[in-house]
Amino acid sequence: MLADGIVAVALYYAVQDYNKQVFRKQKYALEADRYPPDCHELIRSPNEMYYIPLKVAMFYLLNPFTILSCVAKSTCGLNNAVVSLFILSTIKGNVLLSAIFLALATYQSIYPLSLCTGALLYLMQRQFIPINIRRVSFWWFVAQYAFMYLGSLFVTICLSFFLLGSWDFLPSVYGFILSVPDLTPNIGLFWYFFAEMFEHFRLFYLCVFQINVFFYTIPLSIKLKEHPVFLIFMQLAVISIFKSYPTVGDIALYMSFLPVWSHLHKFLRNIFLVSCVMLACSALFPVLWHLWIYAGSANANFYYATTLLFNIAQILLVSDYFYAFLRREHHLTNGYYPKKKDGSEATLVLK
After folding, report:
1. Three-class SS of residue 345?
2. Of the residues 17, 43, 152, 168, which has the fewest C-beta atoms closer than 10 A?
């Protein structure tokens, strides 16, 4: 519970500081007459943004997935606390603390390494460093952040060695995460697939599955380089879906950011369907588990079908928010009611 309280407080102050920066930027943009006149309704007012930090904190604390994680006495709350402190220090603009908390998050699990691109983009924008690979200042800042990150990670791993007296924890922690030897059923995509996999194909598909978490980092970073906070949200969702041993606490962390993007609700297409599917799957998980393990009247296929449907719903949720975000940005650039050459109203089709 203490870790979850730290997460809620860190997210509250992170979103509060982010909202202040967004409002200043939007106010400047309005004064500069940057957006078309018919797009003013797409820009959030200070009154709309005032309660968003509180909504984020409450959305995390009162989330049933967070409560289930606490009841199960999971250590996921500690991981979420470190990641939320990393997000807070990044939005506050503290480069050293951002690198340290990212190193601690990577020390616990390898997957938060993909969050470094969002942090780098945000910190460079905050310090007015041009995001251009041809600039020396760009690579100098990347080298500084990498040095602080790798130095913090090296110190943490060395402290673990001095405490344990051996390097056995490396294969036991990171080797376990990457090789997926434990196929105990969970809400992830790995366990059933590799339980049915032939041994000589295992390494190939293991690499394919593991690379999913990091594969989307580069295209998302290119597309969202001007919006690094939304990039961090997308990466948190990708990690929670494609990591080898996911928990409901991972889902609660990225879902707590949904109130931040409340202005995108008018562009969402599948939110009702996704909500119903996630609620139904959440209710079916314990039922099918009981029927499979205790009653013996079902098998692993029933449980894994629910797992697949649950993860598909998460993918639809994230892709829907990504579509809504891109559509809003398009409207802010080209107008909310685009016109054809003959003056009639045009239909927007995003491909």
Report:
1. strand
2. 168
